[in-house]
Amino acid sequence: MPFGLLFPANAHPSFPAFPQLPMNILHIISQHPGSTGSGIYLQNLLRQAEACGHRNYLVAGISSGMAPRLDGVGAECCCFIRFAEGDLDFAIPGMSDVMPYASSRFSDLPPEAISRYEQVFTKKIRGIAETFAVDVVHSHHLWLVSAVARRVLPEMPMVTSCHSTELRQFVQCPHLSDRVLEDCRRIDRILALSENQAEQITRLYAVDREKIAVVGSGFDDRLFTFADKPAAGPVQFLYAGKLSHAKGVDWLLRVFGGLDAGIAHLHLAGSGIGEEARECLELAGNLGSRLTVHGALSQQDLAGLMRRCHVFILPSFYEGLPLVLLEALASGCRIVTTALPGCRELLAEVAGDLVEFIELPPMATVDRPGPRDWEKLDADLREAVFAMVDRVHNSPSLQRGDTRKITDRSSWRVVFGRIEDAYARAMRCHGRR
Question: pTM for the whole thing?
Answer without folding.
Answer: 0.84
